[in-house]
Specification:
244 residues; alpha/beta; Rossmann fold; two-stranded antiparallel ribbon; 6 helices; 12 strands; 30% helix; binds hypoxanthine
């Protein structure tokens, strides 16, 4: 991997990101919750500086083991992550975008707190229609980032699953068979953002990955407790930071 650089943001701002001259790193971690971004910056980064407060979508740049890295919230859903990542890529020049989030398991061999690495993202969103492709694009993560993340997870002895995730626009579905239909196609888990990120990355020729901890098991109706979520969250963040 090439060494991530700091991007000069002087005189650059968008409707949603106003860095006021604070640089943004070429590699960025993207939790959904902006307070998670603040927690990651305060807990893991050295010399973290805030680069965005617009709509409280907090973003920070610091270093991890001497390497520049940024972290910013994306909000929930494909429309939200898509607009932030579009601006990060096209206006600020970010090159490696790594979503870190939680997901709901759709397979019996996946346990609560396991880590899932998204090899690809299926979706019920029509976000891709804007590209007017003569077919369906398979939305994939960056193999370079995926391979590196899997190696880091294995070295840590972390249980991981690699495969297809569902990025759904629907949290509360009217179709009671909704999850089952995707599960039957081998989809590992459901979340709400990765497909938007992967579509933007594909269109721009940059690298993206999504790493999840399993916070819910949708076949078993299990839900993680707050403390247990934190331990699993730490493992996921350490894998993502290892990519810096
Ligand atoms: N659905 C969608 N997104 C999620 C879930 C879920 O059950 N759990 C965590 N993120």
């Amino acid at each position: 991997m090439t060494t991530p650089k700091l991007l000069d943001t002087t005189d650059k701002s968008t409707a949603h990101i106003k860095p006021d001259g604070v640089p943004i790193a070429e590699t960025i971690l993207l939790p959904g919750d902006p307070l998670r971004a603040k927690f990651i910056a305060q807990t893991y980064l050295d010399d973290a500086k805030c680069f965005n407060e617009v709509r409280n979508m907090l973003g920070f740049t610091g270093t991890y083991q001497g390497t520049p890295i940024s972290v910013m919230g994306t909000g929930m859903g494909i429309p939200s992550i898509s607009l932030y990542t579009w601006e990060l890529i096209h206006v600020f020049g970010v090159k490696n975008l790594i979503r870190v989030g939680s997901c709901g398991a759709l397979q019996e061999d996946i346990e609560l707190y396991d880590v899932v690495l998204a090899q690809g993202a299926s979706t019920d969103s029509n976000y891709l229609e804007q590209f007017a492709l003569p077919g369906n694009l398979a939305l994939l993560s960056s193999f370079r980032l995926l391979e590196a993340a899997k190696r880091i997870a294995d070295d840590k002895g972390q249980r991981t699953h690699v495969g297809n995730v569902l990025s759904s626009d629907i949290f509360y579905s009217a179709d009671e068979q909704y999850n089952q239909k995707w599960a039957q196609m081998g989809v590992l888990t459901v979340e709400m953002e990765a497909a938007g990120l992967f579509a933007n990355a594909a269109a721009a020729g940059v690298d993206a990955l999504a790493i999840f901890t399993v916070s819910d098991h949708l076949l078993r109706g299990q839900h993680a407790s707050t403390e247990e979520r934190q331990t699993a969250f730490t493992q996921m963040i350490e894998i993502a930071l290892g990519l810096a």
